[in-house]
Amino acid sequence: MTGQEKQQRNAISPVLHAPFLKRFASIQKNDPEVYSILLAELERQEYTLGMIPSENYISPTVLAAAGSLFNNKYAEGYSGKRYYQGNVNIDSVETLAIERAKKVFGAEHVNVQALSGSAANMAIYFAMLNPGDTIMGLRLDMGGHLTHGHNVNFSAKFYKPTQYTVEKDTGLINMDAVREQAQKERPKMLVSGATAYPRIFNFKKFHDIASEVGAYSMADISHISGLIAGGAHPSPFPFTDVVMTTTHKTLRGSRGALIMCKEKDRLDTATPSADSKKLSLAQKVDRAVFPGLQGGPHEHIIAAHAVALGEALQPSFKIYAQQIVKNAKVLARTLMDQGIKLVSDGTDNHLILIDLTPFGAGLGMQGAVALEQAGIVVNKNTIPYDPSTPFKPSGIRLGTPCLTTRGMKEEAMKQIGEWIASILKDAKNEQLKQTVKAKVHVLCEQFPFYTHAE
Ligand SMILES: *Cc1c(COP(=O)(O)O)cnc(C)c1O
Questions:
Q1: Is 410 a catalytic residue?
Q2: Catalytic site residue 246?
């Protein structure tokens, strides 16, 4: 099939989406092959319900910055201390991103150069730990992240992991158990934060436990940083030693990460690499990112971070963050009312973890595929104490950040919850999936997103 044929089959309305698509006119003219794929992806994003909780739809303004001419500059180093000439404007835009991040979160020091969340976590460990030091984080199959000490990850190869869990009957982290384990294992770094935990993190308690056992406290707020920015989840600032967030999840920015830390090193036990003089924590973090692990920063992405952080400073972002949580709560309530089991029986944040074991073990993939056939995009996920394997998990993870960005509210969530429940209960019913898919399309038409240029 040629690009043109594909284009003709596409349901994207040339009129409705024209203002947004205008920005890609040069791709359309000069590379129709890429343009046809872009159109197909626009159609997918516009007419399916994006419910993967780690994803979001960025504004056309953030998108414009990410596609800007800041891409063209090499800028190894930091503002005022670059290894290349010609960085006067790069310095301005990077400094602006840093200042805005400080304002959004109340951080003392910010590094905006990490290329993504996993790379940022590597930089944090590299800055603050010696190889072989103990990291204590939430187990992957309990909702933690690979970089929190999972055995296939660098974080368990270069460091010694000890992992905490959630309680089997409640799905919650038991802070007394965390304290006990920390006292026994004496980690150098106590990591809080998760990818699939639907409840509130008590960052203060994590920090207090870290202080008691002589560990650094680290909060990985990748999933919930937008909620924190909008006041919809308690903040790990100002007490946590180091905070990492990806920029592309609830914070609704371009892909990347922020490392935010205290100026002062509370423990100062790691051996600084090349030079022996004492460094502040802020200096250690900066040096770990560059020259420790990375070369030239992606300044177009940093410009996009500046724009996204500017959006997060607007009063409307508070309303957005609160609405994400309100939507997730209504969705959770609807699913439970329809007899669907949720880990921890609900949610306090943007995400929901469905436990499919009442239908049988290992049905996460089947459920996710059935939902995609109905235009609802979620991901399979392990549930705590999953009776099946990580490759064939028994859960589904879904959330409300993208739908809330599109402007959907409680009423739509109720509708969507009912559709999801009906499909999970009858995953092989092709007629049902087609009916729901048609209704999803109509709902999406009521909440178009990439129709405007600004
Ligand atoms: C997403 C995520 C990361 C990793 O981010 P990438 O950009 O995918 O590397 C790290 N930690 C947590 C808690 C996350 O949710």
A1: no
A2: yes
Nearest CA to ligand 1 atom 8: 117
Q: What is the distance between the alpha carbons of residues 331 and 334, in angstroms, rounded to a whole number?
A: 5
Instruction: Provide the β-strand partners of residue 135.
Output: 161, 189
Q: How far is CA 298 from the centre of its chain?
A: 19
Q: What is the pLDDT along the chain (454 residues), one digit of tens a residue?
A: 444 444 444 566 667 899 999 999 999 999 999 999 999 999 999 999 999 999 999 999 999 999 999 999 999 999 999 999 999 999 999 999 999 999 999 999 999 999 999 999 999 999 999 999 999 999 999 999 999 999 999 999 999 999 999 999 999 999 999 999 999 999 999 999 999 999 999 999 999 999 999 999 999 999 999 999 999 999 999 999 999 999 999 999 999 999 999 999 998 665 555 554 589 999 999 999 999 999 999 999 999 999 999 999 999 999 999 999 999 999 999 999 999 999 999 999 999 999 999 999 999 999 999 999 999 999 999 999 999 998 999 999 999 999 999 999 999 999 999 999 999 999 999 999 999 999 999 999 999 999 987 7
Residue 116 CB neighbours (<10 A)? 17
pTM for the predicted model, two decimal places: 0.95
Domain segments of the chain: what residues?
69-312, 316-454
> Of 220, 286, 355, 386, which residue is the catalytic one?
220
User: Is 3.40.50.720 the CATH number for 69-312?
Assistant: no
With beta carbons less than 8 A apart as the criterion, state whether 115 and 305 touch.
no
Check if 54 has its Cβ closer than 6 Å to any atom of ligand 1.
Answer: yes
User: What Å distances lie between residue 373 and 35, 275, 396, CA to CA?
Assistant: 25, 57, 15
Q: How far is CA 193 from the centre of its chain?
A: 11
Q: How many helices (H) and strands (E) does the chain have?
A: 18, 15
265 is catalytic: no
Residue nearest to atom 5 of ligand 1 (CA): 117
Of 149, 189, 188, give the one whose Cα is nearest residue 165: 149
Tell me: domain 316-454, CATH 3.90.45.10, correct?
no
CB proximity list for 187: less than 8 A, separation 6 or greater: 133, 134, 135, 136, 162, 213, 215
C-alpha count within 13 angstroms, C-beta hemisphere, residue 412: 23
CB neighbours of 195 closer than 8 A, spacing ≥ 6? Answer: 54, 143, 144, 145, 222, 223
Catalytic residue, candidates 31, 55, 76, 91? 76
